[in-house]
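Q: For a teaching session next week I want to show students how multiple molecules come together into a single three-dimensional assembly. I've collected the sequence lines for a complex. Could you give me the predicted structure tokens for the whole thing so I can convert them for display?
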Amino acid sequence: MNTIKIIIADDEAPARNRLRDLLGDIAHVDIVAEAHNGKEAVDLAMQHAADLLLLDIRMPVMDGIEAAQHLQKLDPKPNIIFTTAYDTYAIRAFDLSAIDYLLKPIRLERLKTAINKVHALKPAQIKALQPLQNIRSHLSIHERGRIILLPIDEIIYFRAEQKYTTVRTIEREYLLEESLTQLETEFSERLLRLHRNCLVAKQFIRGFEKRSMVNEQDQSETQWVALLKGIPETIAISRRQQHLIKEI
Amino acid sequence: MRKNSRLPNLRNVGILLRILLIANILAMLNALLLSTNVTQFLTQFTELSAAVEPILILSLVCLFAVNPILAQLQYWQGILLIILIEIALTAAGFTIFNQYFSPDVGTSVSRACLLTTIVTGIVLFYFNLQQRAYSPAIAEARLQALQARIRPHFLFNSINAVLSLIRSQPKRAETALEDMADLFRVLMADNRDLVPLAQEIALCRQYLSIEKLRLEERLIVNWQIEQMPPDALIPPLILQPLLENAVYHGIEPLAEGGEINIHIFSKKHELAIIISNPYLRDKANHQGNKMALRNIKERLLLHYDLEASLQTKVTDNRYEVQIRLPSQ
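A: Of course. Below is the structure for the complete assembly, covering every listed component.
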């Protein structure tokens, strides 16, 4: 029998210790890494090609539910068992769609059974996780077989290209397979639509400036642009969105 | 809190304010009935006020003074005494008023006395109803129901933490279980009577040491309680649920943890408790928080009426809860 490579993710050291103790009593399992939050769990799962993640639901930086969703982009998908001390709302959802979970304090027999019958999340189960999801703390970018986790508060703007959406941070650009409308609804608190094809993070707007531009008909015209913090690029503001300048 | 008398405590600011309010509303209603337009209403109300307010203030002073006597009387005797005082004051007041100011207003002394009796009756009836709604039996039942409930999240996580210690550090596991036992003994006790502040503080320290077990160096607590009167009496479990909130909403969502500040001091006849914790705008999920706050607010109301207050505010990324109580 192959050894199952396991990653434990919990922000509380005693909870991790307890799981380590219990897993020590189970044959054919190997703890390859321990994570303090969901983001670490996703990174470590990639590094170690883990078979199974034990994810606590309530964790700082990134919670277990969000981590599970990012992990779906890995190939092969790791198996996931959620752990929680108390969360009526999540537990009801898990029960309804047969998602594996363990209640803390965890019993050895329960853990054994769960590990033996665990399977990757099915599409219907992933869908069932959606309502439990708060606003994401990170975006996962699929790049050359890896997942890059991009913290939401580092994103300066999203721009819609033909097929993809470009995401800009201070360092570089990434490609994302999500629509602007989707992003706008999820992060409405943080983003402003300055142009039909562009969502800009409010916290990165340095100011506005009127510039004269040459348009398609070779005529010069003035247009408002947004100046951004950290990068020299500017974002043109469409005529229809110019009222936003006054509102800020 | 007085338990024996069915008459209101006439030395309580909240009660006195209510009397002022009711009397003035009735005066306003009266002016409204006697007038056909706004100007007339204002004139009516001003005239009425000029006569009513001095008597009202004088009444409150008299009632404040006779409160200890009232407490020793039967309910009906108390009512009678209050009505007699009011009639006497009105009679005296209106006699003087009519003599010096406007004898042509035409309000006869006997009519004024009748109106006063009616108003007094209405006020007393209101307090009777209010007393019934908050009657000791009901108030106690409500206090019992309002007893702070510990978050199940905390219970199960703590048991899990203690379990993790049993193999490696049995001594620490023992202490932790003892702390938990103490905490739950208080939580399950009859918590209707006031307790010394020092006792509540001790309980909070035990609670925080259990949380420290789970959160380790992420949880930092600053106590600023040198100016605190340790013998001051407070309702039990006012502080602990607030700390539980601070840990759940302020510390747990932070990977690197944060500080909880506890500042308790007394000023004149008031005890102030100020608790603050880091506030995360993005992750603000204050549903559970509101429940605990509402619970504490209601218990303060039952114990002190309007003389205690609980306020919350957000300042530079910190969330702060302020409680003020009369210190006894």
